Every structure is written in structure tokens, then in C-alpha cells.
Amino acid sequence: MTALPRDAYDVVVVGAGPAGMAAAAEAATARVSVLVADDNPAAGGQVWRAAAAGPLADGRVLGKDYAAGGGAATRAFAGLAGAVDHLPRAQVWHLDDRLELGLTLPDCGGAAVVRAGRVVLATGALERPVPVPGWTLPGLMSVGAAQTALKAHGMVPDGRYALAGCGPLLWLYAAQAAAAGAPPALVLDTTPRENRRVAARHLPAFLLSPYARKGLPLLLRARRAVPVVAGVDGFRIERASGGVRLFWTRGQRGEDSATFAAVLLHHGVTPNLNLAVAAGCGLGWQEANACFAPRTDCWGRTTVPGVLLAGDGAGIAGAEAAALSGRIAALAALADLRAVSEAERDGRAAPFRAERARWLRGRPFLDTLYRPAPRFRSAAPDAVACRCEEVTGAQVAEAARLGATGPNQLKAWLRCGMGPCQGRMCGLTVTETIATARGVTPAEVGYLRLRAPVRPVTLAQVASLPRTEAERRAVERL
Amino acid sequence: MFRRLPDAAAAARELPFTLDGEPVSGREGDTVAAALLALGRRAFRRTAVSGAERGPWCLMGVCHDCLVTIDGAGNAQSCLVPLRAGMAVETQRGRREVGR
């Protein structure tokens, strides 16, 4: 594609996961123009990746939530083709408070700028960094990455492999890999024991939520299929012949170790907030999930007028809740555009809100149970904190002792957050490591200030943007 | 580092490409990263700072650790690029070079 069908849309949705697809579907019920721009080759986001046409779309391995829920949602989205422009494999690298978006176009080396009446960010979640010694070695990968290889390509790790960490996705992947005939040889469970006591008081609400029906059988299946070492309070990885060697500790016991072809790590997911921050959206610290998220009102409106946020990008709540929040945000956008009345917006949103509340009931239990221990959220002295610039935990802590108060100062001192990933892999680690070193809260330390371009874009792509004669003269000073 | 489940391997057409000049093949539907992982590749690049070996961490476009050179253009996120027949894929050593 060398050009977009239009240069302005009433609603631009960024991301085609559960929230983005649902937002587009709801927006398309009114007579408005809708664009969905997404990184991926096909709609579905991470959770429903390849659910409509992937190699394991039948659900035998990946489960019926994926096959039925994800399949139906992605097929319904494909059915919107006449009403919604879907731009896959496009990276949105710019959004500003004039609601102008810059995006790269696939396969032509080109780029485009589009103006939006309203923007719905549905940029989803990414996995929390796991800054332990050795996590940058080849053979180490996130659990989410292995699940992507399974969903999109029907691939499993080759040889004996281990999982280490905690969180629902870790158990889901263990169960799915076992169903594919390739269970992990070992699971190191880092769920802090003290979390159970705190989580217990949220258990009744969890049991009343749809998560209980989904999660409990899955957990039992996974735990039956794989050997689990619980109560792991530290681990590290070293290069070894035939793969990598995983070392772990539990309380007073000494260090145990084993060699694996691959080790997959996971410590939960957090909002993917780069585009929202670059657009100027205000952030808040979410203590329950130990992450930052853009502040939103009950419609998903951010602090930037016209920019709404839906799905896990506003706080982790899962695919079903994300889809409902996408519908709610789209209704708010339609009412702002006067495409529906406020009364209609409120009436149509009510059942979505009620259904979303049922899902959210289950979250406090999951959030408190699987909140990674503080020692895993800060970088160990000998662990890489910033993978791009290869900055260690010791360097970050030392800079904090020398007076660096926050991650933005560290950009100038150590370059963390300045590499190609733009802080996605180190942002939370750097904040938590500084907070630990200074003895203050992550909320006081704050987060990286992020700026466009938030995705890699070449000068040639920027130069390919259409420009007016006045713009050319302004630059060339003719 | 990864292997294909038998059903998935049987279903898709083979796509020939080159990896550091060697003729190899992947499958239709692969990303470049998936094809390399199925070929047993663990390290995709050497870092710009220390020259350390790195392989993909996230496979979803976030970590930028799967960067390779594709058809002479460096810094390609191999997890986001669909594999095409005839591609020339190279390990990236350090920074992207000027003109590549």
C-alpha cells in the first residue's frame, strides 16, 4: 500500500486486539469513517493472534476461549471490511494533541499522516521485564514469545526447557505446551508465599467472576502435567554447553541448578503506554499491578482531549474486559462527534459496563496473588537493566546514589531508555531500581518521558510524507 | 531453538531463502524470526554496545533484540517481517551500517 484511502477519519483506532476490534465494531454502527492501524499481519492482537486462520485455530491445543472467543471476534472484525479501513503491518510512530497520527505503510517504505476526529488507543499490554542475571542470553525468551510461536507458527521449544516466574500466562502456556505434546521439563514458581495471605481476602470475589471457571481447571491441568518447584525466591542463568544453566534458590536451602536448551521467563503483563505518553497523556502508578498506566475516566478518556484508551493499555484486565472497554470508549467517541446522543451512549454502554464489572471482580485476586516480589522488579547489581544500552542494575543504583532522581536524568547519564526499544524493556525496572536505591516509592520516582517517533521510522519514510509548498518554503527559507 | 509441530509443518508450503549466504528454507506463514528459530538459530545479532550475542526476547515487536539485515537493509525487526521466497537474511553485527 502506497497511500491511505483518506487523510482524515472520524475515528482512528490504534491496535487490532480485542479492544481495538470491538471499538471499531461499535464505531462502525454509526455513519462515521473508521481506520484501524495495527502492527501485526492479521487482526487479533497478542491474545487472539492467528485465532481465525492459524495452524492451531481448531483449539485442541490452545483451548476453546482462544478458538471460539478469539475466532469469533476476529471473524466478526473481518466482516466489517466495507465499513472500517484496516491497515495491518503499520506502525504508528506519532500522535499529538492536534490528533494527527504518523504511521509507516507496509511494504512500500512509505509513511502517512492522518487526522482523527477521535483517537482510540488500544495498544494492549507487554510483558514485564525480568531483570535477572543472564536474561539477555540467547536461549532465553519470554513466555509470551513462546506462546506467539505456538499460536502463529505451531512451534514449540526444541529440547528440554524450563519456565520461571509467575502469572496466569505462565500456567496457560504450560497447559497449552503440554497439550501440544511438549510440556516444560520444569516450572520454577516465583509466586511470593506472602501474596497468598493478602490475596485470600479477594478470593470470594474471584470465585464469583468468570475468571474462576476459566482459570482454576487450567491451573490444575498445568500443575498435573509438569513438575513445579514452588517458593523460588531468586534465580539466574549462565551460558552452558548444550544450552543454558538455570540456578535457583528457595529460602534457606542452597542453590539448585539444571541445564536446559531454553528457559522462558514471565512476570506478568503491564500496559504498553509509549504512544499514550508521547501524546502527552498523564500517567498514574497502579499499586495493585506495580505498573504505570495513563489516567482515564469512566469512558476511557485520557488527559489529552480527544484521545481515549481502551483495553489492557489502561490497566490489565484481560481480553474480555478489554473488548467491553473498547465498545465503551467507542460510544464515548461517537457521542463526542455527535454521531449518537448522550442518552443513547449511556443506554448502550450500560450492559457493557455491567458485563465488564463481572470480569473486573476477578482481578484483585489475580493481581495480588501474582504480583512479582520486589527483588524481581528491581535489577540485581549484576543483571542487565537496559537491554539496548547494556546498563546494569549496579550502574542504575550507583547513579541514584550520586543524585539521579528519576529515569529521565538517567537517559543523559547512562542512556537507559534511549535505545531502539525506547524504554519498553527497561522503563519499569529503572524506576523500581531507583526507588529501591533511594528508599522512595515508584510513584515518586515517576516514569520515562517518551517522545515521537515511538516506533522506528527512517528519514526516507519521513521525507516521503506529502508536504505543501508553504511547508517546503518554511524549511528551505526561500 | 524451536521445532514445528508435525501438523503445522505438513500444512505449509516451503519458502527458500538465504541466511548469511547459505540456502535454507522456511514455511509460508513464517515471520523471518520464526523461520530462523525453526532452523535452530539462537543468536540473531551482535549488540552495538558490547558485541554480545542476542536472540529474540518478545516476538511481538517490542524488544528490538531480533534485528537482522534483510535484502541489504539493516535493523529489520525479524519478528514483524513475513518471510518471502528469495529473501537474503544476514546476521547483524553491531550497529546498522551507513547505506545498509
UniProtKB/TrEMBL annotation, chain A:
<feature type="domain" description="FAD/NAD(P)-binding">
    <location>
        <begin position="9"/>
        <end position="323"/>
    </location>
</feature>
<dbReference type="InterPro" id="IPR036188">
    <property type="entry name" value="FAD/NAD-bd_sf"/>
</dbReference>
<protein>
    <submittedName>
        <fullName>NAD(P)/FAD-dependent oxidoreductase</fullName>
    </submittedName>
</protein>
<dbReference type="InterPro" id="IPR017224">
    <property type="entry name" value="Opine_Oxase_asu/HCN_bsu"/>
</dbReference>
<dbReference type="InterPro" id="IPR041117">
    <property type="entry name" value="SoxA_A3"/>
</dbReference>
<dbReference type="InterPro" id="IPR051691">
    <property type="entry name" value="Metab_Enz_Cyan_OpOx_G3PDH"/>
</dbReference>
<dbReference type="Pfam" id="PF07992">
    <property type="entry name" value="Pyr_redox_2"/>
</dbReference>
<dbReference type="InterPro" id="IPR023753">
    <property type="entry name" value="FAD/NAD-binding_dom"/>
</dbReference>
<keyword id="KW-0560">Oxidoreductase</keyword>
<feature type="domain" description="SoxA A3">
    <location>
        <begin position="389"/>
        <end position="463"/>
    </location>
</feature>
<dbReference type="Pfam" id="PF17806">
    <property type="entry name" value="SO_alpha_A3"/>
</dbReference>
<dbReference type="InterPro" id="IPR041854">
    <property type="entry name" value="BFD-like_2Fe2S-bd_dom_sf"/>
</dbReference>
Automatic annotation (TrEMBL), chain B:
<protein>
    <submittedName>
        <fullName>(2Fe-2S)-binding protein</fullName>
    </submittedName>
</protein>
<dbReference type="InterPro" id="IPR036010">
    <property type="entry name" value="2Fe-2S_ferredoxin-like_sf"/>
</dbReference>
<dbReference type="InterPro" id="IPR042204">
    <property type="entry name" value="2Fe-2S-bd_N"/>
</dbReference>
<keyword id="KW-0560">Oxidoreductase</keyword>
<dbReference type="Pfam" id="PF13510">
    <property type="entry name" value="Fer2_4"/>
</dbReference>
